[in-house]
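Good morning,

Attaching, inline, the backbone tokens for the sequence recovery test we're adding to the shared suite. The designed sequence is right after.
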């Protein structure tokens, strides 16, 4: 693809883990485990393809407050068991981790696990995997507004962007949602003002490297004008 036709930053709303498990008569935790494995493999593929930033929507603020405790406990159990091992694989490939969201509201050991993953990332990495966990676009904006007010600042768009969790990360060029739903679910709503969107019915554990490449190709065939003619 031409350089200007290739996305630097891709966001992905990883939807469908629970339905994938249900189709197999398995508990939702089985789907979350399959989704975690697919996420790490997809990050490796995205890096190899030339993507510089991949933001994965791992857990929304609404998920944290509305999902059954049993499901959340299962998800956190997967993080405890597999997260550190998988992140070290990414480190070995010169990839870093960035966390966006209110991790202080998560179980203390999970928050520490995520914070350490970010802190221990290699410097000058070629690729950044951004985890959106206990993340919500509206709460992110409210938090940024409150920070500006507390500092007594009247800010423009550029300075406001620096107050968001994603400071230092370019806005997403392409946002993919798996699982067949046609909404953004409070994901990067400030940053996605000019993003291209790609929706697929494929449930996330089945969203293969080939499916990802198909989304990149679809993106490359679009014309982005950013308000111009």
């Amino acid at each position: 693809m031409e350089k200007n036709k290739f996305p630097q930053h891709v966001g992905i709303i990883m939807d469908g883990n629970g339905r994938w498990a249900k189709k197999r008569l398995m508990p939702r935790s089985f789907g979350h485990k399959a989704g975690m494995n697919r996420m790490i493999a997809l990050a490796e593929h995205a890096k190899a393809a030339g993507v510089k930033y991949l933001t994965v929507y791992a857990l929304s603020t609404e998920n944290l407050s509305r999902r059954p405790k049993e499901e959340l406990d299962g998800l956190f159990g997967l993080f405890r068991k597999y997260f550190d091992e998988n992140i070290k694989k990414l480190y070995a490939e010169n990839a870093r981790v960035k966390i966006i969201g209110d991790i202080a509201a998560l179980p203390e050991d999970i928050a520490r696990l995520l914070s350490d993953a970010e802190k221990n990332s290699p410097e000058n990495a070629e690729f950044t995997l951004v985890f959106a966990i206990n993340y919500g676009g509206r709460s992110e904006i409210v938090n940024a507004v409150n920070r500006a007010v507390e500092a007594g600042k009247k800010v423009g768009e550029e300075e406001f962007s620096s107050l968001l969790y994603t400071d230092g990360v370019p806005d997403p060029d392409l946002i993919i949602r798996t699982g067949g739903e046609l909404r953004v679910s409070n994901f990067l709503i400030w940053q996605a003002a000019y993003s291209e969107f790609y929706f697929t019915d494929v449930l996330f554990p089945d969203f293969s490297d080939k499916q990802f490449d198909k989304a990149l190709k679809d993106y490359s065939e679009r014309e982005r004008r950013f308000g111009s003619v």
